[in-house]
Specification:
Organism: Aquirufa ecclesiirivi
Pfam family, one: Methyltransf_3
Keywords: Methyltransferase, S-adenosyl-L-methionine, Transferase
Distance between the termini: 34 Å
Protein name: O-methyltransferase
InterPro entries: Cation-dep_OMT, SAM-dependent_MTases_sf, SAM_O-MeTrfase
Number of helices: 8
Largest sheet: 7 strands, mixed
Order of helices and strands: HHHEHEHEHEHEHEE
Shape: globular
Oligomer: single chain
Strand order of the largest sheet: 3-2-1-4-5-7-6
Length: 213
């Protein structure tokens, strides 16, 4: 994931809106206590997600892949006062840690945190979705897209993380299954006539898909 110049990254963060104290603590405690802290969205991506959410003003956000809750807290900033964010994760071991930070947030009551398999839970969501954030097991990205795209309102957004996969998607020598799955997923979305596409080289790559009217 460290393929963007660290000086450019630091400069970008310095000239972006700062994190809240709660997000700073969550970042610090994740790095101190939790395995694979690089999975955390972090300051720059978090502010981007919060900005997009505030522009969309969603009534319902679906997040697939919670980890320790940083991205969920950022996305929740844009919810309307009666809005809800549903975040799905299978990792029971992180539930207590993650829920403790949701409980400290003034937005915690709007976050519906479910320890479930997303493949089984998404079909149960009947409401129209305004914004989806996918950041889970890469080999199932195509399945998650297929499960959510018809549930997203026209003009709504699907944002998908890690689509550059530390730059491996353009490395012809990278033959592992996750890399190939991401290449296939990016191509699939490009060819899908239901969405407009923008792939941003922000952090590890964000694919932004807008549902066509």
């Amino acid at each position: 994931m460290e393929f963007i110049d660290p000086a450019i990254d630091a400069y970008s963060r310095a000239f972006s809106e700062p994190e809240s104290d709660l997000l700073k603590r969550l970042d610090r405690e994740t790095h101190a206590q939790i395995l694979q802290p690089r999975m955390l969205s972090g300051h720059l991506q978090g502010r981007f997600l919060a900005l997009i959410s505030s522009l969309v003003q969603p009534k319902l956000i679906l997040e697939i892949g919670t980890y320790t809750g940083y991205s969920a807290l950022c996305l929740a900033e844009g919810l309307v006062s009666t809005g809800k964010l549903i975040t799905l994760d299978v990792n029971e071991e992180l539930e207590r840690f993650t829920r403790s930070f949701f409980d400290q947030s003034p937005l915690g009551s709007q976050i519906d945190y479910r320890i479930v398999d997303a493949k089984d839970e998404i079909p149960n969501i009947q409401e129209e979705i305004d914004l989806v954030f996918i950041d889970a097991d890469k080999r199932n990205y195509a399945l998650y897209f297929d499960l959510v795209v018809d549930k997203v309102r026209k003009g709504g957004l699907i944002i998908v993380d890690n689509v550059l996969w530390s730059g491996k998607v353009v490395d012809e020598s990278a033959k592992d299954k996750s890399t190939q799955a991401l290449r296939d997923f990016n191509q699939k979305c490009l060819q899908d006539q239901r969405v407009e596409n923008l792939l941003l080289p922000l952090r590890d790559g964000l694919l932004i898909l807008k549902k066509k009217a």
